Amino acid sequence: MADTPLQAASPDAKEAHVPSLFEVLGGLARKAIAGVQDYSILSLRSLTNLAAGPRYMPDAMEQMDIIGVGSLPIVLLTGFFIGAVMVLQTGSQFTRFGQTALTGDVVAIALVRELGPTITGLLVAGRCSSGIASELGSMLVTEQVDAMRAMGTDPSRKLVTPRVLATLLMLPLLTALADFIGLLGGCVVSVFTLRLDAYQFWTRAIDALEFADLMQGLSKPVFFGFILATVGCYKGLSVRGGTQGVGRATTQAVVVSSVLIIAADFFLTKISLFLADKVF
Amino acid sequence: MSSHGTNAAVVSLEAVHIGFEEGEVLRGVSFSVPPRQTLVLLGESGTGKTLTLKLAAGLLRPDSGHVRVLGQTVSEMREEELLEFRRHIGFVFQEGALFDSMSVADNVAYRLREDGLPEEEIEPRVRETLRFVELEHALEMLPSELSGGMRRRVAIARALVNRPPVVLYDSPTAGLDPMTAQTIITLILRLRDVYGVTALLATHRLQDGFALANFRFDPESRRVFPLAAGNGGAAAPGEAAGTRFLVYRDGLVYFSGGPEEIVASRDPYLRRFLV
Ligand SMILES: Nc1ncnc2c1ncn2[C@@H]1O[C@H](COP(=O)(O)OP(=O)(O)OP(=O)(O)O)[C@@H](O)[C@H]1O
Ligand SMILES: [Mg+2]
Questions:
Q1: Does A52 touch chain B (CB under 8 A)?
Q2: What is the value of pTM for the model shown?
Q3: Among A103, B17, B56, B138, which residue has the fewest nearby CB atoms (within 10 Å)?
Q4: ∠A11-A16-A18 over CA atoms, to 5°?
Q5: Which CATH architecture has domain B11-92+165-274?
């Protein structure tokens, strides 16, 4: 927004007012509540937009390419090493009891249920939540978002929904690949360090997994994707204060979405375990 | 302020107030623009010119007061209705606000694509519009490859591609050298005299307004003619209504009138814009 040094010199400038602690806290609380409210509206709109009206599918495809294909290298590389390190850590414990064959079970369950979804979620949050926030933030400060509105486009349809949809669909796929590559990494390490048979590792790993584990492992990323995309969009579209504000929004998007992903993971695990108990 | 018939006004603001945390910026602004008139909005930086244009396009809502455009009360419409309604309004943003990841052609075609026009209809219209702003050769360039003046011209092309009856220009000459500024003003002049648009033009420079008030573009001979002899002198009476001036100061309308009144004025605040 235009900074106006002239205004500071205006004669009826407000006299300095030192706010009390109560006022400061009240102001902060009000801001926080308004923020949560705006975020909720934006997230809800991102989904309800799909029900009718212009849908901008080409934009969604482009985002799938950027978010899905673009994140592939880091997700695969990280997945491989996570699987590998899991074997190193658990293997050394199992050798003490002479139960190295169990490594496959443990790695599979830990990866599919927990590490695959969260690590992928966090990686993509770091890469895409920030990317979305900085892209939308720059568009906002250069008035491109207003220009869109001025030309009759709803930014929540053109900008938010394609990104949310793309992330929502891509994250489970990325997670599945990360799980697979993680198991591969685990397999390689167990063959070389634990002298396990590769075939045995795979059969044990696959046998250990139950349907409920897969459900848990592939439903979590849907939520994580929704969180990281909506947080990125919200932070980007609520930038204040020019380029510096864009930088701030970018950092905040990563921090907030990462924390929310971890917190959501706890509750999703709780729900999944409950469902696995009752339903499956 | 204005004695023009309010019913016939294309754009009108009534007692509009808008403010932010830092304080009120517009403190009761009223004016109206009749059809085919160009209202030149003057004021120092931060007096709320951009805000006024955004209010007129419904991009912002006033805290109180009414904004009417083309017979609709913009200040009370829902965003969905506004999205549809804004197709009648062309908005040229202060810094152009071009979509920087799209080529010039795609920027100009944006609105036509939104309207779902077939590609074979879009392409000639984009070309024609870019020819109007003399940028046909820049079709495939990206906004970052253009000069400031070219960017403004693309922004104007983008705003007028679907021939809106109302165009809002936000400081189209700000930050340009005098020659380029002149080209832009000539372009606005041509738009007015070829298509007969109603316009609001925010600017810091009084001479932009004078150029619009004192010159006319003749579509037949494709040339610009002065309306009256004398530098910045009174325009022919019939044409004088075509351009009016509104000066903001401290959130209020400080002056409203024709070009001759502003020239005759000895007011030091008004004279500041003459440089
Ligand atoms: N979104 C906003 N949030 C807070 N303050 C704002 C916002 N938009 C505008 N303002 C304030 O409103 C005032 C008027 O802004 P506006 O952009 O309309 O000025 P202007 O007349 O167009 O100035 P310039 O000639 O520099 O473009 C400024 O003081 C600005 O700080
Ligand atoms: Mg401005």
A1: no
A2: 0.87
A3: B17
A4: 165
A5: 3-Layer(aba) Sandwich (3.40)
